[in-house]
Amino acid sequence: xxxxxxxxxxxxxxxxxxxxxxxxxxxxxxxxxxxxxxxxxxxxxxxxxxxxxxxxxxxxxxxxxxxxxxxxxxxxxxxxxxxxxxxxxxxxxxxxxxxxxxxxxxxxxxxxxxxxxxxxxxxxxxxxxxxxxxxxxxxxxxxxxxxxxxxxxxxxxxxxxxxxxxxxxxxxxxxxxxxxxxxxxxxxxxxxxxxxxxxxxxxxxxxxxxxxxxxxxxxxxxxxxxxxxxxxxxxxxxxxxxxxxxxxxxxxxxxxxxxxxxxxxxxxxx
Length: 270
Known about the structure:
Organism: Microbacterium lacus
Number of domains: 1
Radius of gyration: 19 Å
Number of helices: 11
Strand order of the largest sheet: 1-8-7-6-5-4
Number of strands: 8
Shape: globular
Strand content: 15-25%
Pfam families: HamA (PF08878)
Order of helices and strands: EEEHHHHEEEHHHHEHHEH
Structural class: alpha/beta
Protein name: DUF1837 domain-containing protein
Domain Anti-bacteriophage protein A/HamA C-terminal: 6-264
Helix content: 40-55%
Distance between the termini: 48 Å
InterPro entries: AbpA_HamA_C
């Protein structure tokens, strides 16, 4: 286990004195919905003739219910976007494809991505997303998932399900399947696993400021440092994997989820 956990903080920032919630929602859905909800081959085949229907199908596949406040798909979409934009990750599978019916909540890792380096080595990023308004609750839930999801039996079953869902047209399909093959020891596989822990929360630092200036940066840095210390003090891992904490401070989780729901409904044509 590393001596310390890497931590990043991602924030939408401000515009004209207001937190950029609407801008964040537009950007996330415009650039990331298709690769979040569709398989590699489906997304690759989207054309000008099929784009509108593809977006509608992707939006419908996320969920189609008005009971959305406590659902986790938006957190998973935000995690996916963050991994692609800031860590050069590629989705190995669409978690939406684990679903057998609309609105079903799927257990297991919230994201499965691959990150390659300049030497051709690959890392398997198995993410957990907690789309919460309160940081302590988000952290408690994430820590419980880390312990259960890194148990040997769970990993073996999850790798079996993931392997079945990998799109063979994806250029990295063979390498990815080999990396998590049953024939390999979990001790060896764990060396290539990164576990991004993505936590949203209503932030005092974000709420008390209206521009990205030094006092905001200082307040957010202190807030993130305190959160990291609390996380590290409670973390227990049954396998030696790299854990990366990704904190997403919000002005209002409730407002953000309402905006995301409205955007999803609009894309569904509802």
